[in-house]
Inverse folding.
């Protein structure tokens, strides 16, 4: 079995979590506080309505700054007050199609936001560990269908991917120029396409399915044959947390790790993911192919090689892609039937930790 985040490690740890109002950030905040960490959140107000952040009541349980990652003064004040031992940097403009609409802002947030964070953090006296979350899309994708290892060439066809590849260079520069000499361990985490309950973002497959079901409209799918390294949010976060633990303990000096499903699993196209989620939620398996419509280019194939995470952390995905789909569907189905988001989320965290 895969290595699991160690609750005893996180008890009392001061953690600055950026992007805590987003989908993954909301799961991360709840899991970390449930393990006893002292979390300070820093992010913009939630962009989606509803938002998992609000459904989980995050503002009632942690110190939070609802501010822009590019606001140097507020960011410095948050770091000074939190005095973090660990920083998990997840704040970003995370959407490919939005990056075509706002390319300059995407680079500003993802690149210069990271610059401002790391520059402020290098003066933080207690800091020992930084994990910067980038993406599976940092690699120069030749559409060959191969699974990219960490030493593959970085690049990016779309502005989002390019901004995250540039973010990798920023992290490397600040690590080599400032943070390593202070004994601060810094690494990037490149996660696959994440599934899980409570994602209400625009331009994402599962939220689109839920919105279509609620509105009674037919689901639109832009790229039905595209494949992605699907994984559950808990597997992805488990990778981030165990990486932070290993860096903090001096168990590894790895500078970047992929987190995704085993390459031995068959690649599942978007249309099959949609059908599986619709079936698991008791919905008609209906959708409309919009791939012929004029729209920005997105990659058709994408795969990650997570072998280095297995060898350095003993991390492997605990849930198969099919299990990730089913867990996601159960969360949304429970929520649609009146279940409390916090209870549904904590129940899945507990089940994941119990294996």
């Amino acid at each position: 079995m895969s290595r699991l985040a160690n609750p005893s490690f996180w008890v009392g740890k001061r953690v600055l979590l950026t992007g805590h109002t987003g989908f993954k950030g909301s799961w991360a905040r709840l899991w970390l506080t449930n393990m006893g960490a002292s979390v300070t959140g820093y992010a913009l107000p939630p962009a989606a309505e509803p938002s998992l952040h609000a459904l989980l009541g995050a503002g009632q349980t942690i110190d939070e700054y609802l501010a822009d990652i590019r606001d140097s003064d507020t960011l410095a004040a948050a770091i000074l007050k939190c005095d973090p031992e660990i920083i998990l940097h997840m704040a970003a403009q995370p959407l490919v199609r939005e990056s075509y609409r706002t390319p300059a802002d995407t680079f500003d947030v993802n690149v210069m936001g990271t610059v401002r964070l790391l520059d402020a953090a290098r003066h933080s006296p207690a800091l020992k560990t930084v994990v910067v979350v980038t993406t599976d899309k940092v690699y120069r994708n030749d559409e060959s269908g191969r699974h990219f290892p960490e030493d593959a060439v970085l690049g990016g066809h779309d502005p989002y991917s390019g901004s995250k590849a540039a973010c990798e260079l920023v992290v490397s520069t600040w690590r080599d120029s400032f943070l390593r000499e202070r004994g601060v361990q810094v690494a990037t985490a490149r996660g696959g396409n994440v599934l899980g309950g409570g994602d209400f973002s625009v331009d994402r497959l599962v939220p689109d399915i839920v919105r279509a079901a609620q509105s009674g409209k037919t689901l639109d799918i832009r790229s039905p044959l595209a494949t992605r390294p699907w994984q559950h949010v808990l597997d992805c976060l488990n990778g981030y947390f165990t990486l932070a633990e290993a860096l903090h303990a001096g168990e590894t000096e790895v500078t970047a790790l992929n987190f995704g499903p085993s390459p031995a699993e068959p690649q599942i196209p978007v249309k099959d993911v949609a059908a599986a989620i619709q079936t698991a939620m008791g919905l008609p398996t209906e959708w409309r192919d919009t791939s012929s419509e004029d729209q920005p280019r997105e990659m058709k194939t994408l795969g990650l090689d997570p072998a280095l995470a297995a060898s350095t952390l003993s991390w492997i995905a605990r849930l198969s892609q099919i299990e990730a789909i089913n867990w996601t569907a159960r969360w949304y189905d429970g929520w649609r039937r009146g279940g409390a988001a916090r209870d549904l989320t904590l129940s899945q965290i507990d089940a994941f930790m119990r294996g």
Remarks:
- DSSP finds 13 helices and 13 strands in the chain.
- The domain at 7-194+231-262+300-319 is CATH 3.40.50.720 (Rossmann fold).
- The mean pLDDT is 94.
